[in-house]
Design brief:
Length: 91
């Protein structure tokens, strides 16, 4: 099932493993080596923290979300989104 995920971090997350080694995982969602960081977070540093942006498969910004209408729930403000599912409207 397809999903739309909202990533709120603008930098990678460093995790220390039990053996003392460290790994760096993607926090922005754009990494081509996901779940590991590939440095793509540099593309999002100018984003407004109160907006949700949409990127294509090449990690190019194609727009921003004004609001989301969820079936049986109505309109949801973008500030409160953690994760959402997109269901295409029937034509």
């Amino acid at each position: 099932m397809p999903r739309i995920l909202v990533f709120k971090h603008k930098k990678p997350l460093e995790i220390e493993l039990a053996d003392g080694s460290r790994i760096v995982v993607c926090g922005c969602g754009l990494s081509e080596t996901f779940p590991f960081c590939s440095g793509k977070h540099i593309l999002i540093q100018d984003e407004d923290d109160d907006k949700v942006y949409v990127y294509d498969e090449r990690a190019e910004r194609i727009g921003e979300v004004e609001h989301i209408v969820v079936k049986n729930r109505g309109k949801i403000g973008v500030k409160n989104i953690r994760r959402l599912e997109y269901v295409a409207a029937k034509e």
